[in-house]
C-alpha cells in the first residue's frame, strides 16, 4: 500500500504543478482561454480516480494507471511550458494545449458530426466484412472441396491491401461512401475469412463424432456446434481487425470524402491548422479506445466456456 | 429390444495404401485389417464388455457399432435391421469430449434428449425434456452441477453427465468407449459403483443392451454379463459373468471363481501358455458357462 500511496501522491503533485503553471505563470504566447484545457485535465483526473476506485472498495491499484497518469501530466506540463508559457516551441507546428482543447469547445458539435459520419462508414464496413467473412469462412471451411479450392485463392488475395483496389472500387461503387465501405469491408473480410476456414477445419474430431452420434442435422451442426465453437475466435479477430478497419477508414476518408474524422484531419492539414489536427488525433484515439472497450466487453460476454 | 448382431465384420482404414493396391489387383484379402471377420451376437439386455490391450481393435469395433465408420466388409444389424450410419437407437459415451464445452451440464443432457425425441418421434415438450434431463442428472448425483460448464467439472463429473445424457436419451443400446479410462482409481471405482446401481434400476424397468470397451479387467468383471477378449482384431475368448448386481469390488473380486476369470484374462493379456489351462480348470469346476 505504501508504494501505491507514493505514486498517488506524485501524480497529484504533478497535477497541482500543471494547474498552477496553467493558471499562474505568465503567457509568452497569445492563446485562447484555458477553461477547455482545464476541463480536459479534470476529465483525465476523473478517469484516473475511477480506475482506482472501481467498485465501492479501494481495490489494489490497477498496476500502471498511476504511472500512465504521471506520464500524461509530465507530457502536458512540458507541452504547456514549452509552447504557451515560454514560447520556445515552433508556434505553428506545436499549437498550445489551450488552443487544441479550445477546438473541442468551439467546434464540438462539428467534430461530433464527423465522428458519427466516420462511425457509419466504419461500422457498416466492419460489420458487413465480419459477417461475410464468418459466414463464408464457415461454409468454405466445412466443405472439404470448397476449402481445397478457396483456401489457396484466399491466401493469394488476402495479403493484398484493399486500398490497392480503390481506383476500381471508386468506379464500380455507386457512391463515394460505398467505395469507402468496400475498402474497409475488404480489409476486415480477408483475415476473418482465412481464420474461420482454419478454425472450422480444426474442429476436434471428438466433437464432430459426438455431434454425429447424436445425428444432428446440418443446420443444427452449424448453429449449435460450429458457431459456438468459433465465437471466441470471431470476437478475438474482431478486436484485431478493428485496428485494420480504422486504418482503412482513415485512408478511405483521405480521398474524396466530404465528412468524417479522417476528412477533418486532412482538411485541417490543407489549411495548416495544427490545433485542429491534434484535436482530431485525440478524437480518433478516444473513438478507437471506446470501440476497443466495446469489443473487449463483447468478447468477455460471449466467451463463457473457456 | 436391442439385439446386436455382427456377421463377418472386417474393417480396414481406407487410406491404407496397401489395401488399395490389393483391391485393384485381384480382390484379394486386404492386409492391415483392424477387425478380422468378427461374428458376435449381443443379446437384448445384455451388458457386454470388450476387453483387450491398446490397439487390439476394440475402439474401432465400438466406433463401427456407433456408425461412425462403415465396415469394409460384413454386416451389422440391430434387431434384424441393418445398421447404416449413426442412429438414435444407440447412445455413446466417449472417453472424453462427450460433452459440448459451450453448453452447461443440463443443456448437454437436454441436447441429447431433444435429438432423441425429435428423431424417434417421441414429441417431448420443452418442459418434459428439461424434466427428464434433471431427473437423470440427479440419478448420477449431478443435480447441483446442472448449470456448470464442462470446464468447471472434474473428469469424473464430466463422465457422470455424459452417462446421464446417454441414459436420458432412452436408447435401446448404450455404447461406452473406455469412459473411465482417463480417471484416477478412486473416481473410477465410484463410477463403476454408479454404473452398477444404475443397471440395477434399469433392470427393474427395461433392460438395455450395453457394449462397454475397457482395458481394465476388474472393471469388466464388475460390470459385465459377458466379457469378450479381443486381440489383433479377433475375439480370443468369450466369458460369461453370471453374477447378481450390485457387485461390491472388495468382496466380488476376491471370489475364487472370479479370480479364475481374472487369471484367464490376465493370461490373455500376456498371451501366456497357462491361459488354456486356466480355462480348462474353470470349466471343470463350474461347467461350461460357469455360474458363479
Q: What would you say this structure looks like, in words?
A:
The complex is a heterodimer of chains A (306) and B (292). Chain A has 306 residues and is an all-alpha fold. Chain A has helices at 2-24, 35-52, 65-85, 97-142, 144-157, 166-172, 176-201, 205-213, 218-252, 261-270, 274-302. Chain A has two domains: 2-94; 107-302, MetI-like (MetI-like fold). In chain A, 78% of the residues lie in helices and 0% in strands. Chain A is flat and about 80 Å long. The model of chain A has no long low-confidence stretch (mean pLDDT 83). The mean pLDDT of chain B is 83. Chain B has 292 residues and is an alpha/beta fold. Chain B folds into two domains: 4-89 and 172-286, 3-Layer(aba) Sandwich (Rossmann fold), CATH 3.40.50.300; 99-171, no CATH class. Chain B has helices at 17-26, 58-66, 105-119, 126-139, 155-168, 185-205, 217-223, 249-252, 256-270, 274-286; strands at 4-11, 35-42, 47-51, 73-78, 81-82, 90-93, 173-177, 209-214, 226-231, 234-240. A six-stranded mixed beta sheet of chain B has the order 6-7-8-3-9-10, with helices on both faces. The chains are: A mainly alpha (306), B alpha/beta (292). The interface between A and B is medium-sized, with 19 and 26 residues.
The topology string of helices and strands of chain A comes to: HHHHHHHHHHH
* H/E series of chain B: EHEEHEEEHHHEHEHEEHHH
Strand content of chain B: 15-25%
What sort of overall outline of chain A do the alpha carbons produce when their principal axes are compared?
flat
* Number of beta-strand segments of chain B: 10
Write the layout of secondary structure elements.
The complex is a heterodimer of chains A (306) and B (292).
Chain A: H1 2-24, H2 35-52, H3 65-85, H4 97-142, H5 144-157, H6 166-172, H7 176-201, H8 205-213, H9 218-252, H10 261-270, H11 274-302
Chain B: E1 4-11, H1 17-26, E2 35-42, E3 47-51, H2 58-66, E4 73-78, E5 81-82, E6 90-93, H3 105-119, H4 126-139, H5 155-168, E7 173-177, H6 185-205, E8 209-214, H7 217-223, E9 226-231, E10 234-240, H8 249-252, H9 256-270, H10 274-286
Parallel strand pairs in B: 3-8, 3-9, 6-7, 7-8
Antiparallel strand pairs in B: 1-2, 1-4, 4-5, 9-10
Helix pairs in contact in B: 3-4, 3-5, 4-5, 9-10
Amino acid at each position: 500500500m505504501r508504494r501505491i500511496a507514493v505514486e498517488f501522491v506524485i501524480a497529484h503533485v504533478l497535477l497541482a504543478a500543471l494547474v498552477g503553471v496553467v493558471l499562474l505563470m505568465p503567457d509568452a504566447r497569445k492563446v485562447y482561454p484555458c477553461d477547455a484545457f482545464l476541463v480536459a485535465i479534470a476529465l483525465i483526473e476523473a478517469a484516473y480516480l475511477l480506475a482506482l476506485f472501481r467498485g465501492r472498495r479501494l481495490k489494489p491499484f490497477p498496476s500502471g494507471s498511476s504511472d500512465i497518469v504521471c506520464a500524461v501530466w509530465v507530457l502536458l506540463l512540458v507541452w504547456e511550458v514549452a509552447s504557451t508559457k515560454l514560447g520556445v516551441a515552433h508556434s505553428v507546428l506545436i499549437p498550445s494545449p489551450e488552443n487544441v482543447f479550445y477546438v473541442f469547445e468551439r467546434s464540438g458539435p462539428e467534430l461530433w458530426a464527423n465522428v458519427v459520419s466516420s462511425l457509419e462508414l466504419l461500422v457498416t464496413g466492419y460489420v458487413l466484412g465480419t459477417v461475410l467473412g464468418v459466414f463464408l469462412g464457415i461454409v468454405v471451411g466445412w466443405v472439404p472441396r470448397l476449402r481445397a479450392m478457396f483456401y489457396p485463392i484466399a491466401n493469394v488475395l488476402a495479403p493484398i491491401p484493399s486500398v490497392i483496389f480503390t481506383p476500381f472500387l471508386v468506379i464500380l461503387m455507386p457512391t463515394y461512401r460505398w467505395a469507402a465501405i468496400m475498402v474497409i469491408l475488404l480489409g476486415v473480410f480477408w483475415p476473418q475469412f482465412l481464420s474461420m476456414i482454419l478454425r472450422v477445419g480444426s474442429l476436434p474430431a471428438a466433437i464432430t463424432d459426438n455431434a454425429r452420434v447424436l445425428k444432428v442435422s446440418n443446420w443444427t451442426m452449424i448453429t449449435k456446434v460450429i458457431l459456438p465453437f468459433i465465437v471466441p475466435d470471431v470476437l478475438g479477430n474482431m478486436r484485431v481487425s478493428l485496428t485494420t478497419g480504422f486504418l482503412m477508414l482513415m485512408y478511405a476518408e483521405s480521398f474524396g470524402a466530404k465528412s468524417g474524422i479522417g476528412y477533418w484531419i486532412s482538411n485541417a492539414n490543407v489549411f495548416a491548422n495544427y490545433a485542429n489536427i491534434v484535436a482530431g488525433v485525440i478524437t480518433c484515439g478516444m473513438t478507437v479506445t471506446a470501440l476497443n472497450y466495446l469489443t473487449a466487453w463483447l468478447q468477455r460476454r460471449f466467451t463463457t466456456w473457456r | 429390444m436391442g439385439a446386436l448382431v455382427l456377421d463377418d465384420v472386417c474393417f480396414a482404414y481406407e487410406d491404407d495404401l496397401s489395401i488399395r493396391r490389393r483391391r485393384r489387383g485381384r480382390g484379394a484379402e486386404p492386409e492391415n485389417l483392424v477387425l478380422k471377420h468378427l461374428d458376435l451376437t449381443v443379446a437384448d439386455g445384455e451388458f457386454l464388455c470388450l476387453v483387450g490391450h491398446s490397439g487390439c481393435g476394440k475402439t474401432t469395433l465400438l466406433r463401427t457399432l456407433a456408425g461412425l465408420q462403415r465396415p469394409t466388409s460384413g454386416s451389422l444389424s440391430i434387431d434384424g435391421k441393418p445398421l447404416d450410419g449413426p442412429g438414435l437407437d444407440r447412445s455413446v459415451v466417449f472417453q472424453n469430449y462427450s460433452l459440448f464445452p459451450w453448453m452447461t451440464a443440463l443443456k448437454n443432457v437436454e441436447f441429447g434428449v431433444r435429438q432423441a425425441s425429435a428423431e424417434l418421434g417421441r414429441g417431448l415438450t420443452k418442459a418434459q425434456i428439461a424434466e427428464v434431463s434433471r431427473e437423470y442428472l440427479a440419478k448420477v448425483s449431478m443435480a447441483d452441477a446442472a448449470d456448470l460448464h464442462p470446464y468447471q467439472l472434474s473428469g469424473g463429473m464430466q463422465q457422470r453427465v455424459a452417462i446421464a445424457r446417454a441414459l436420458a436419451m432412452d436408447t435401446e443400446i448404450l455404447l461406452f468407449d473406455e469412459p473411465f479410462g482417463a480417471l484416477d482409481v478412486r473416481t473410477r471405482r465410484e463410477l463403476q459403483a454408479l454404473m452398477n446401481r444404475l443397471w440395477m434400476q434399469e433392470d427393474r424397468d427395461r433392460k438395455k443392451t450395453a457394449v462397454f470397451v475397457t482395458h481394465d479387467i476388474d472393471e469388466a468383471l464388475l460390470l459385465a454379463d459377458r466379457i469378450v477378449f479381443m486381440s489383433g482384431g479377433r475375439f480370443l475368448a468369450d466369458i460369461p459373468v453370471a453374477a447378481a448386481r450390485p457387485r461390491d469390488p472388495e468382496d466380488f473380486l476376491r471370489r475364487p471363481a472370479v479370480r479364475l476369470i481374472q487369471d484367464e484374462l490376465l493370461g490373455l493379456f500376456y498371451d501366456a501358455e497357462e491361459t488354456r489351462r486356466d480355462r480348462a480348470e474353470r470349466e471343470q469346476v463350474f461347467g461350461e458357462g460357469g455360474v458363479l
